[in-house]
Design goal:
The chain is mainly β. Helix content is about 10%, strand content about 45%.
C-alpha cells in the first residue's frame, strides 16, 4: 500500500528558508471500471502471415467494425489456420495514474496476446471461467489508449469450439492492494458470512479497515445492517471474514426471490482502496437421501436444460433468458441445468426471476474451482453437478466440497419427485 503511517521529522539548521507546502494527494477513489463492450475493429489473418507487426500499434484501414461481445454463433471456430485481430481506442482518466489496472475477460475463447499502446502482454488462455491480465505498465492515464488483441486457437466449452470475446470485457482500476475474491455464505435465516481474499501486491505490512453494509431490497437508501473490522494486510494473499445479521431476512426461493444489495469497502483512512457491490440471497440447500431440500423443504426435481449456444449477444440476451425462464415455469420445469461457461445474464436473471439452476462443472479440475468461485454468490444455483466424464483427483473433489459448504456437489441429478 502506498499510504503508510510514518512520521518524518525534518530538522534544519538554516532558519530563514521557507518552502511552499506540497499539495496533498486526493484520496483514492476505490474500484473504477471502464467497459470495453461495444464497437471494435476486427480482421482475420493467416497464422503464417509475418507481415503483421505493424498491426500491434495501429488500426489497419481495412479493419471492419464488430460488436463486443460477439455472438456465440460467430465465436464458433471454422478454421484453425486463422487468427482474429481486434482494435479499440479508449480514453483513460487522469486519476488512474499510479493505480493497478487489470484487463478482465468474462468469457474468452482461444489464446490471446494483448498490446496496450504497443506494450505486449500475455499470452493468456481462455476457458469456462473468467480470466484477467495486469496491464498497468502499458496504460497512459489522461490520454487515449490503443488496445490490440490477437486471438488464435480455440476453447472447447459445452462441446463447442469457441474463439473470441463472447462475454463482457472491462478494465478495472484499484489500489495495489485490492479485493481479489468475495464468497458470500448464507449461514442461517438471518446470518451471512462474507469471506474475502485481499491481494497485496506490495512488500508492505499495514493496517486497513473493512466496512460492510446491507440494504433494503426495496429501498437502497435504507440500511438494514452494518459491520466493520480492522485487518492487518501482509504482502501476498490475505484472508478475512465478516459475519453480519439481517433481522427478519426473507429467504430466496422461486416464489420469493429476495435479493439483498450490499456494499463492501476496503479502506485505509480517507483512501478507499477497493470496493465491491452486488446482491445476495439467504437460502439453504441440502442433498438428503438422494433428494434436494431448498430452505428445508423437499424441492420437486423436473429438470430442463438451456441451449445457450443459440442465444444472441448483447442486450437481446436478457430478453431471451427471461423468455426461457417463463416458458420453463409454465411447462412445470422446476430447475434448469446450466453449463459452467454460460453467459452471465443466465445467472443474474435466474436470481431475479427465482429460477433454480444446477450448474454442470467443466471437466478440467482447475477450471471447475475457478468457475465455482466466479458463480458462488448467485443464490439461484442450488447444486454443482460433476461432469459425466470427469477425472477429478480425490483432493480436488474434497476442495470443491470444502469451497462451498452451502450447496451439494452431486454426481447426478436427484430422483424426480412425484
Amino acid at each position: 500500500m502506498k499510504y503508510l503511517l510514518w512520521i518524518l521529522a525534518l530538522l534544519s539548521l538554516t532558519p530563514a528558508i521557507c518552502q511552499a507546502k506540497p499539495k496533498p494527494s486526493p484520496p483514492e477513489p476505490g474500484r473504477l471500471t471502464i467497459s470495453l463492450d461495444g464497437a471494435w475493429r476486427s480482421l482475420s489473418s493467416n497464422l503464417s502471415d509475418q507481415a503483421l507487426n505493424s498491426w500491434t500499434n495501429q488500426i489497419p484501414p481495412s479493419a471492419e467494425i464488430v460488436e463486443m461481445p460477439i455472438s456465440l454463433q460467430a465465436a464458433k471456430v471454422i478454421s484453425d489456420n486463422k487468427a482474429t485481430w481486434y482494435w479499440r481506442q479508449t480514453g483513460i482518466p487522469a486519476n488512474w495514474k499510479g493505480q493497478l489496472v487489470r484487463l478482465e475477460f468474462e468469457g474468452l475463447g482461444g489464446q490471446a496476446e494483448i498490446w496496450v499502446n504497443g506494450a505486449r502482454f500475455g499470452p493468456i488462455k481462455g476457458g469456462a471461467g473468467p480470466t484477467w491480465l495486469d496491464v498497468t505498465n502499458g496504460i497512459h492515464p489522461d490520454n487515449t489508449n490503443l488496445f490490440v488483441m490477437r486471438i488464435d486457437g480455440a476453447t472447447t466449452i459445452d462441446g463447442a469450439r469457441l474463439r473470441g470475446i463472447w462475454q463482457s470485457l472491462r478494465l478495472v482500476c484499484t489500489d495495489d492492494a485490492y479485493i481479489e475474491s468475495l464468497l458470500i455464505e448464507p449461514q442461517s435465516r438471518e446470518w451471512a458470512n462474507f469471506v474475502l481474499q485481499i491481494n497485496n501486491t506490495t512488500k508492505i505490512h499495514a493496517d486497513a479497515e473493512l466496512f460492510l453494509t446491507i440494504y433494503d431490497p426495496h429501498n437502497r437508501k435504507h440500511k438494514l445492517a452494518e459491520t466493520q473490522q480492522v485487518v492487518v494486510v501482509s504482502p501476498g494473499l490475505n484472508l478475512a471474514g465478516m459475519l453480519i445479521k439481517v433481522k427478519k431476512a426473507v429467504q430466496w426461493g422461486p416464489d420469493h426471490p429476495a435479493l439483498y444489495p450490499y456494499r463492501l469497502e476496503f479502506r485505509q483512512g480517507l483512501n478507499l482502496l477497493d470496493n465491491k457491490e452486488g446482491v445476495f440471497g439467504f437460502r439453504s440447500v441440502a442433498d438428503r437421501d438422494g433428494r434436494l431440500l431448498l430452505n428445508e423443504i423437499p424441492y420437486p426435481v423436473n429438470a430442463g436444460s438451456i441451449n445457450w449456444l443459440d442465444m444472441p449477444a448483447g442486450s437481446a440476451l436478457q430478453d431471451t433468458v427471461n423468455g426461457i425462464y417463463q416458458k420453463a415455469r409454465s411447462s412445470g420445469i422446476g430447475e434448469l441445468i446450466a453449463a459452467a461457461g454460460d453467459p452471465g445474464a443466465i445467472f443474474g436473471e435466474a436470481d431475479r426471476y427465482g429460477m433454480p439452476l444446477v450448474v454442470e462443472l467443466p471437466a478440467d479440475p482447475a477450471e471447475a474451482i475457478t468457475v465455482m468461485k466466479h458463480l458462488f454468490n448467485h443464490p439461484s444455483i442450488i447444486a454443482w453437478l460433476l461432469p459425466k466424464s470427469h477425472n477429478y483427483p480425490a483432493d480436488v473433489l474434497s476442495e470443491l466440497k470444502a469451497l462451498d459448504p452451502t450447496r451439494p456437489v452431486i454426481q447426478s441429478l436427484p430422483k424426480p419427485s412425484h
